[in-house]
Amino acid sequence: CESDWFGLIQSHLGSDYVKLAGLSLWTIRLIVLIRRDHYYAVSHIQRGTEATGIAHVIGNKGGVGVCFMFHETSFCFVGSHLAAHQSKIDLRNSNFREIVRGLQFHVLEGKVKHRFDLLNQFDHLFWMGDLNYRLDMPRDEVLDLVKANDWKALYQADQLRIEREKGTCFPGFSEGLLEFPPTYRYLRGERIYSEEKLRVPSWCDRVLWKSLPACPIEQISYGCCDQIMTSDHSPVYATFEVDVGLALLPHESCPSTIQLSDLHLNLIGGDGDDKKEKKNKKQNSLQVRFHAKFLAKVASTEKEKPRFKTVNWDDSKLPVLKPYTTDISYLTREHLYVVVSQEKGSIGQGIIPLSGSVGVPKQFECLLTQYGRRTGLLYGKARICSLVEGWQQLEEAMSDTEADTEPAARPSPPSSPLVQRSFDFPRATASPRAERIPSSDTSELEVAASGVVSAPSPAALAEVSRTTATAVESESSSAVSAAEQVAGRIKSINKQRGEIPSTPLPPTPSSSSSLFVSSNSNSNSNSNSNS
């Protein structure tokens, strides 16, 4: 029973580990344990089950899931048992999508104004269990290749590999190398493949994972445990090393905007098992909406109609995103949560990382999925532009064009105390560019020009952050508006110029922790586990 199995797992690991969560759906079980000294770093624990058996009520097939926050990193674990039999590939794919749709976790609730599905909200999602995908190869050939330890040849016939390449299941997931014998079907009590019904030995038991872009993860091991013989499956295990985000310490602050460019969308058709999708052939106008934890409101593109399953947005029709936070280092470890929608609702969700985009447009390729089905690819560039950088670039662009064009009226720095203070750094040695500034211009603009030669130090930025902390909340909106104006002026004056590289930010702090997850999805025995 459930309590016996949970107790056995916990007693094996010892008193250093405590149970964080556990649940069952018939004989599908999942338990998450954590080191005792990390227990109080966990929050927002959620659990859920989804039956995919007869009438979507019988729980012999389906999935169970647990999600939570550990420090500033979100985790989700899913254990599942999908449809059996060699030929039931489409049904297994359908079971997967039903579980994605049915397990409605909301770790982002209250942080973004849209409910994202299971595949598009967690930093790290691990999926394990008896997935039941088989090897499409004659039994005798499989046995010969197993004797020769030719795992690469066997993997070419793996149904799960083939379906993932088609995009019909587990889009965006990764899996380690399969360098162990097929885990099904053995005689109980020994590791000899059963001849009952001459079933083809297969890798039915798997562990896959899906992590957000720029969320480091490394698989340390992946294998099976042939010493446990109480089931007709051999249990599998996997271990990972994951960087855990900690709360950021106060760092340099500056109002900023996030600028998008070269945005285009390529739609991908479904695999055809959804009749409603086949009937809806009308090409409706599409819109991209951008959500994030640091945005006070949703930003959207203008609506565009697709041509040959492709949509291109002119840069003038793209929104400028205005974070309410002024902490640049925080933005670099965050993501944009994307929803592509039409009149009848969402047709795809995806995630865009912001790491590496400070001052430099960074190319992204965003996989769009809808309840486990791949629906498209969104391409473009994203750039975090700070207000200080913006004024420096504007001054440079205007100075370089003075010789060829009539002098334009120079803009004055914003009147916001926050922004004025942001330029109040120790002066660098005056450059020829600074000397050309008319005497009527403000001292802050002169410092901005000379700052191109000598950038403010991190210590000065930290001093600015401390001095202006009380002005951030009241002045951030006007400062961001000024940043947007600066970005527009730069764009119109300096289209052909390159970007000014930004000063690299310090690395995000991380923590090493220990977590143990075990899942049992074998209806025949409670000893088959995947961890």
Describe the structure concisely:
A hairpin with a 7-residue loop joins strand 12 (287-291) and strand 13. It contains 13 helices and 20 strands.
3D architecture notes:
With 531 residues, the chain is an alpha+beta fold. The chain is 24% helix and 27% strand. It has helices spanning 2-13, 89-102, 139-147, 151-155, 159-166, 275-279, 328-332, 387-401, 417-422, 432-435, 443-450, 458-467, 469-493, and strands spanning 17-25, 28-35, 42-51, 62-70, 73-81, 124-130, 205-211, 217-224, 236-242, 244-245, 256-267, 287-291, 299-300, 310-312, 335-342, 345-353, 362-370, 373-386, 510-511, 515-520. It has a 5-stranded mixed sheet. A 4-stranded antiparallel sheet has the order 14-11-18-17. Strands 13-12-15-16 form a 4-stranded antiparallel sheet, with no helix packed on it. Strand 12 and strand 13 form a beta hairpin. Helix 8 (387-401) runs parallel beside helix 13. Residues 271-280, 413-456, 460-476, 496-512 and 525-531 have low confidence and may be disordered.
